[in-house]
Amino acid sequence: MVLKSLSEEDRAKARAKALVSRTRRAEVKHSFGRGELTIAELLELARSDEAVGRLRVTDLLESVPGIGSVRAAALMERIGISANRRLRGLGRKQQAALRSHFDDTPPHAKK
């Protein structure tokens, strides 16, 4: 399969779109980590916002204070989420398990 070569203008548009997406994902992770968004709100947002839907679950969990890579991996393994799964790719049972874990309360309140 041969990839289409992009013009400089197309590359610039793609870079701008990627920057907007990365910025949006960073904002969402920050809001979730600070408790401004619940997991239910975030999962709903992932359905309609492409940038949020492409956020890796691992990155989201690690944005919560007190959850590092080891705890995030353990939680994902217990729930049955693969390491490279994105929010939009979660099944109903996986979403329900995440909701249950965070009790639909802001993550910073979870001890």
Task: Please render the helix and strand layout as text.
Layout: H1 8-34, H2 39-48, H3 50-53, H4 57-62, H5 69-79, H6 92-102
Q: Could you say which overall geometry the principal axes of the C-alpha atoms support? A: elongated
Q: How would you characterize the largest beta sheet?
A: none
- Share of residues in helices: 55-70%
CATH class label of the domain at 39-105: Mainly Alpha
CATH architecture assignment name of the domain at 39-105? Orthogonal Bundle
Structure annotation, total helices: 6
Classify the beta-strand content into a percent band.
Answer: under 5%
Please provide the ordered H/E string of secondary-structure elements.
HHHHHH
3D structure, described in words:
It is a single chain. By secondary structure, this protein is mainly α. It has a domain at 39-105: Helicase, Ruva Protein, domain 3 (Orthogonal Bundle), CATH 1.10.8.50. The chain has 6 helices and no strands. The longest helix has 27 residues, at 8-34. The radius of gyration is 16 Å and the shape is elongated.
